[in-house]
Amino acid sequence: MKMDIKLLTAALSAMQSRRVLVVGDVMLDRFVDGSVKRISPEAPVPILSQTNSKQMPGGAANVACNLAYLGCRVRLIGITGQDQTAQSLRHEIEQAPGIEFAPFVLANRPTSVKTRYRAGGQQILRVDEEMTEPLDDATALQLTDLIVGSIKMADVIVLSDYAKGCLPPSVIAKTVQAAKKAGRMVIADPKLEDFSAYADVDVLTPNLAELELAVGAQLDELESIAAAATSIAASHRIGAVMATLSARGIMLANASGTITHETAAARDVFDVSGAGDTVVATLAAAVAGGMALGDAVSIANLAAGVAVGKSGTAIVSPGEMIAHIAHAAPAPPQTGAAYWQKQCEEWRSEGLRIGFTNGCFDLLHPGHLFLLADAAHRCDRLIVGLNSDASVRRLKGPSRPKQTVQTRAAVLASLEIVAGVAIFEEDTPLALITQLQPDLLVKGGDYKADEVVGGTIVTARGGEIVIIPTLGPHSSTGIISR
Fold first, then answer.
1. Does the annotation count 200 as an active-site position?
2. DSSP of 169-232, one letter per residue?
């Protein structure tokens, strides 16, 4: 289906603060970048001249990060060792907002780490340091107790299986059984070849290669993929199978044979690392927010299209998803101050309370949504003052904004809680506030009322200034940095 921007923004708003339990194989993803200009004289292999390196959470931890950057509250359970890699992984997870990490620590088991070497942005080698042996029965039982004790706190449970030993069949079965008893949906991203291990889950999310392994056949045509997915769902009492098909998009099938195929939403493909995690996380967040499964799949497909256009183990912000389709809106929004001045005068004559807030809103994130929702609930009509591109560059530096003012305006205007967007060229919105004369001035952060630009204008006419605390460490800068 063609994604409707109103449906998308409603879904993204509904995701906020939903609770998701993520269980699975956590790991540290490292990326070593450089250039290759010659071949080694010692062996026919390229020599990488390193220019940069970075690390970030991977595997189930990347699923948790994607959920957190969409605005969900996440509890993450996975196995780590007592090593430096575990400390690095914990540090990286702590940079993401809204994740409670509950590691199951095993002193005799190293923390998994994948190191990808890249030249010109393309992988030339990957080195895995890990132990993949399944847990012994006693340890698996201890892990199961930890998982089951966390199920009731969650709206949705995600099993992120990377076949590193955290999710043996016994742990999966007992987790699914406990989730069913508690009335919670389970989404499983499989790695085991025998899909019977995932029996009774609500949604199974294999990629094409995993689906082919499970049925023991090569699946070239969409019809054969649909038949295989339907058979898997029926054989193992799975609510639906959502198969990710890379450039061919996503297919959803259930046991009764109902098939939905979403074509790929990507415009440019740069790196597919972690794109499956983005799909699973977005699906879980949308379902947790109350979206129907078919709509949730469409939103997950859109998120995948954004993720593959990024380098590394990507996360996707709400603003990036909206911007991905905002260009297709029938007409750009009105952004002129004179237009909104006239509109405010009309609203005021009708006795409506007009609210105002402002910012750069570069890569809209959950902190922005929290501020806008709170502001909108305090007034009848909310106007957002938006810094122009030149204004953002003066405030944030020459590399900002990442999205043009036209895109940022379209993203904001698509939110039902926003009545209008007015662009201003100055460093502050003082002139715009003077022109609009709002009844309510909302600012986020640690400001004091007497420090807010335009506050005296609003209070002079009997208006109100409200300071809304910042929601955790969400920031556009943090998303860009990651």
1. no
2. HHHHHHHHHHHHHHT-EEEEE---S-GGGGTT-SEE--BHHHHHHHHTS---SHHHHHHHHHHH
pLDDT, residue 264, reads 80
CB atoms within 10 A of CB 41: 7
Q: How many domains does the chain have?
A: 2
Q: What is the pLDDT of residues 10-22, one digit of tens each?
A: 999 999 999 999 9
Please tell me the predicted confidence (pLDDT) of residue 411.
Answer: 92
- Cα distance from N-terminal residue to C-terminal residue, the chain: 31
Catalytic residue among 277, 295, 362, 389: 277
Q: Which residues of the chain have pLDDT under 50?
A: 269-271
Per-residue pLDDT, 270: 46
Does residue 64 sit in the same domain as residue 176?
yes
* Residue 230 sits in the same domain as residue 122: yes
Whether residue 63 lies inside any domain: the answer is: yes
CATH number at residue 370: 3.40.50.620
Please say whether the beta carbons of 45 and 70 come within 8 A: no
**Structure confidence by residue, pLDDT tens digits, 247-265:** 888 999 999 999 999 888 6
d(CA 198, CA 435): 60
Residue 322 in domain: no
Same domain for 354 and 310: no
pLDDT of residue 477: 59
DSSP state for residue 96 in the 8-state scheme: S
Does residue 267 share a domain with residue 349?
A: no
Is residue 25 within 8 Å of residue 189, measured between CB atoms? no
Same domain, 343 and 312: no
CA distances 312 to 30, 246, 307, 337, Å, are 9, 17, 9, 40
Strands 46-59, 26-39: pairing is antiparallel
Q: Which domain holds residue 9?
A: 5-316
Q: pTM above the 0.70 mark?
A: yes
Does residue 215 lie within any of the structural domains? yes
Q: The domain that contains 59 carries what CATH number?
A: 3.40.1190.20
Side by side, the strands of the sheet bearing 122-129 are: 46-59, 26-39, 112-119, 122-129
